[in-house]
Amino acid sequence: MNTTMTTAMQGAMFTAVTALFLVGLSSVSCGKAEETFDDFDSNVSCNEYCDKKADCNDEQPTAEENRACVDGCRDAIEDECGNEYQASANDKIGECVDMGCTEFWACMKYDAAPECFGFVDRGSS
Predict the structure, then answer these.
(1) The whole model's pTM is what?
(2) pLDDT class of 38 with cuts at 50, 70, 90
């Protein structure tokens, strides 16, 4: 009987330690998951920005030029912007690309963290 009590207590301790470990792991994973989601959104937003930029400047960029545009945009948003601003910067691009060209260029400013939009190149506009 004493052995059963010890085994039961060990099982409870193991469960408690496992639960604490999983809670700690999930908080790390959630942060990483959010960053991955924001990076995916940046890829989408930056592709939309580069398409709109080309359209507004009446350009037909090569695949390499388009990739450079997207990469520059993503670098600014994902690396220069900071995690606290990345999601709202992506949302701002989403708002802007739905506008006409004149409004698009006026919209492409991000006062909360200007470095987030350091990639903005108005080209011939």
Answers:
(1) 0.70
(2) low
Neighbours of 44 (CB within 10 A): 12
Contact 50, 66 (CB under 8 A): yes
Q: Report the interhelical angle of 63-75 vs 2-56 (nearest 10°).
A: 130
Residues 6+ apart with CB under 8 A from 36: none
SS (H, E, C) 13-51: HHHHHHHHHHHHHHHHHHHHHHHHHHHHHHHHHHHHHHH
- Number of alpha helices (DSSP H) and beta strands (DSSP E) in the chain: 4, 0
Question: Could you tell me the pLDDT band of residue 102, with boundaries at 50, 70 and 90?
Answer: very high
